[in-house]
């Protein structure tokens, strides 16, 4: 066996075999914490593995960038792994849903439906992959408003309506409430502590594959004055660095809900879709940290069905490396978000 070449403790070798790690390159593409989670080894044992693997690689041909990319093909954004939204129309727009292993921003005015989508994703992530989920839970971090527990419970009770194509036995077998972990952070210090201390525990145990922050702009807007932009940008970079670390290390989807600001010169900002008169808050310092930017907006008019009515809304792709700039109409019903005939 390949791991016998490293002359490690037999217990360590057996753990590597159980984790189905088949090459030295695979070990080098996995972080230390991920290797601990996959193998169940201690930190010192993982360090032995990494040192021995690096030494073994030095005795062989150097690894090319292409080989590393192929070795990590089942990780992150390159793998094409997506978290579905639970709405076929919007999943089609996003080519399957939110990309795993990267940061997605969702911005829009109040009442556009941003929190509704965050809640829907917190349930969607719990489904198996064949139904658009990741068979795991969600960490929902609230920075301004209390967590909408009543709305979450309503969405849970209506899952069989939203997902009529899913076997009822599967829906009944998921304990949705037990797999949504809620954090409230009132300032940047507590937010950073959550991301660097408490969140990694849930992620390392495989309990969470989605992190939602609702909203990212709230704390940065209230803690800094206009002339403190340099310190604010520094804190933004620290915050985004923590998010990138979590998304890459644990291969999770990260959704940052953002507020918007008015645009006075539409041609000058270039940060949102052309159909919008607003742009996401926090400016270029934050825009450069996200991989996918989505925007929601309310439209004129309503749609009705049975005894329900909803304002028309639209989800648009502002930028994404794998998506065209496009949009779809949707409405918010009792059971959740559903696509509607696009009025545009």
From TrEMBL:
<keyword id="KW-0234">DNA repair</keyword>
<keyword id="KW-0227">DNA damage</keyword>
<dbReference type="GO" id="GO:0005524">
    <property type="term" value="F:ATP binding"/>
</dbReference>
<dbReference type="InterPro" id="IPR058766">
    <property type="entry name" value="HHH_XRCC3_RAD51B"/>
</dbReference>
<feature type="domain" description="RecA family profile 1">
    <location>
        <begin position="79"/>
        <end position="260"/>
    </location>
</feature>
<comment type="similarity">
    <text>Belongs to the RecA family. RAD51 subfamily.</text>
</comment>
<keyword id="KW-0233">DNA recombination</keyword>
<dbReference type="GO" id="GO:0071140">
    <property type="term" value="P:resolution of mitotic recombination intermediates"/>
</dbReference>
<dbReference type="InterPro" id="IPR047348">
    <property type="entry name" value="XRCC3-like_C"/>
</dbReference>
<dbReference type="Pfam" id="PF26169">
    <property type="entry name" value="HHH_XRCC3_RpoA"/>
</dbReference>
<dbReference type="GO" id="GO:0000722">
    <property type="term" value="P:telomere maintenance via recombination"/>
</dbReference>
<dbReference type="InterPro" id="IPR013632">
    <property type="entry name" value="Rad51_C"/>
</dbReference>
<dbReference type="GO" id="GO:0140664">
    <property type="term" value="F:ATP-dependent DNA damage sensor activity"/>
</dbReference>
<keyword id="KW-0238">DNA-binding</keyword>
<keyword id="KW-0539">Nucleus</keyword>
<dbReference type="InterPro" id="IPR020588">
    <property type="entry name" value="RecA_ATP-bd"/>
</dbReference>
<dbReference type="InterPro" id="IPR016467">
    <property type="entry name" value="DNA_recomb/repair_RecA-like"/>
</dbReference>
<protein>
    <submittedName>
        <fullName>DNA repair protein XRCC3</fullName>
    </submittedName>
</protein>
<dbReference type="InterPro" id="IPR027417">
    <property type="entry name" value="P-loop_NTPase"/>
</dbReference>
<dbReference type="GO" id="GO:0045003">
    <property type="term" value="P:double-strand break repair via synthesis-dependent strand annealing"/>
</dbReference>
<dbReference type="GO" id="GO:0033065">
    <property type="term" value="C:Rad51C-XRCC3 complex"/>
</dbReference>
<dbReference type="GO" id="GO:0005657">
    <property type="term" value="C:replication fork"/>
</dbReference>
<keyword id="KW-0547">Nucleotide-binding</keyword>
<dbReference type="GO" id="GO:0000400">
    <property type="term" value="F:four-way junction DNA binding"/>
</dbReference>
<dbReference type="GO" id="GO:0090656">
    <property type="term" value="P:t-circle formation"/>
</dbReference>
<keyword id="KW-0067">ATP-binding</keyword>
<dbReference type="Pfam" id="PF08423">
    <property type="entry name" value="Rad51"/>
</dbReference>
């Amino acid at each position: 066996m390949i791991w016998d070449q490293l002359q490690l403790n037999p217990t360590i070798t057996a753990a590597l075999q159980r984790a189905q790690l088949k090459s030295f390159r695979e070990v080098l593409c996995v972080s230390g914490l991920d290797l601990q989670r996959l193998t169940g080894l201690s930190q010192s044992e993982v360090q032995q593995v990494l040192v021995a693997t690096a030494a073994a690689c030095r005795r062989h041909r150097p690894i090319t960038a292409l080989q590393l990319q192929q070795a990590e093909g089942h990780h992150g954004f390159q793998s094409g792994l997506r978290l579905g939204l639970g709405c076929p129309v919007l999943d089609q727009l996003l080519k399957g849903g939110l990309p795993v292993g990267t940061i997605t921003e969702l911005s829009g005015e109040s009442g556009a439906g941003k929190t509704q989508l965050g809640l829907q994703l917190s349930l969607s992530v719990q489904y198996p992959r064949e139904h658009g989920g990741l068979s795991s839970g969600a960490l929902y971090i609230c920075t301004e408003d209390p967590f909408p527990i009543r709305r979450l419970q309503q969405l849970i009770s209506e899952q069989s309506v939203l997902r009529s194509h899913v076997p009822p036995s599967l829906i009944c077998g998921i304990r949705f409430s037990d797999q949504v972990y809620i954090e409230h952070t009132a300032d940047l210090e507590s937010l950073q502590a959550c991301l660097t201390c408490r969140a990694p525990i849930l992620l390392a145990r495989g309990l969470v594959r989605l992190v939602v922050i609702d909203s990212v702009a709230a704390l940065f807007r209230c803690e800094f004055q206009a002339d403190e932009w340099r310190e604010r940008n520094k804190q933004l970079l620290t915050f985004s660095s923590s998010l990138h670390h979590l998304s890459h290390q644990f291969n999770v989807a990260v959704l940052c809900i953002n507020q918007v600001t008015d645009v006075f010169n539409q041609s000058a900002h270039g940060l949102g879709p052309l159909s919008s008169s607003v742009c996401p808050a926090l400016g270029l310092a934050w825009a450069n940290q996200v991989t996918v930017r989505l925007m929601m907006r309310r439209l004129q008019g309503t749609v009705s069905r049975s005894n329900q009515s909803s304002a028309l809304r639209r989800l648009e792709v502002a930028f994404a490396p794998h998506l065209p700039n496009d949009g779809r109409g949707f409405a918010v019903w009792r059971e959740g978000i559903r696509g509607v005939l696009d009025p545009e």
